[in-house]
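Schema walk-through. Below, the input block comes first and the output block second. Nothing else is stored per chain. Lengths vary across the set, and this one has 304 residues.
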Amino acid sequence: MTVIAPSATDHAPGKASAGGAGSLALRALMRNRLAVLALTLLALLLVAAVSAPLIAPYDPNAQDLLMRLRPPAWSDGGSGAHLLGTDQLGRDMLSRVIYGARVSLLVGAGAALLAGVIGTLVGLTSGYFGGWADRTLMRLADVQLAFPSLLLALAIVGFVGSGLWPVILVLGFTGWVSYARVVRSEVMSLRTRDFITEARAIGVTDATIMRRHLLPNVMAPLVTIGTLHVAAAVVAEASLSYLGLGVPKETVTWGAMLSDGQLYLGTSWWVAVFPGIALMLTSLAINITGDALRDVADPKAYRR
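--- output ---
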């Protein structure tokens, strides 16, 4: 008896059709001009974050009190040496915004990856085995959902301490529930399919079934959820840094810049506005990309 995974039969009758579906999905994504714009912005942010030491005009923590609170270059009193102006300690705003992207993207991607791994393992176990395992894991998810995510993150960070990696771990461990619920739902609908029944009949182990037959079939929704979770983690990190519980002060973050700039909104608006714009555009671009990926993952969306 030969077991055929759904990727070869149920979902993709052949390599050509699979390639055709992928081509249709890619063309549908490229037709979405807003998604292309969002992807372009994210690519530029990623390049800026990776090459920050090369493109930033100044050290983000270098202070020059003689240049403090200088407005942007296009404003009266501005200087071409500081295109976005300087903050209350004379630090270059453009350099700080560029370096802030490194922390935001790293925290967002790291937290989403960790939450995705935990949630996928929980969802696979819960949906495949059912019974007491399903009840126990889902009640644990319900308990976590009973706490506001940001409040729970604040409590954990306050207990374990602040820092870049503690923040990633905290946001990862507090964000796995959405992954687990989606994976559980998909696995419960797949575990009664013929290819799973046949695999069990010939003695394929449960771990192999989950790894080779179930996991590939839940990757599409996982990618969509993961993309949206990156945006949520970026905002959560900025919120923690704004409250002084994120990464250390010497590390440049958009949330800490917002916290410092709130005192100068009436006189030096650029200190808070530029990191706020960067945070808003990043979150917006990630959310638009996630929505586009969700639409592309639905065959009906690009076959109309």
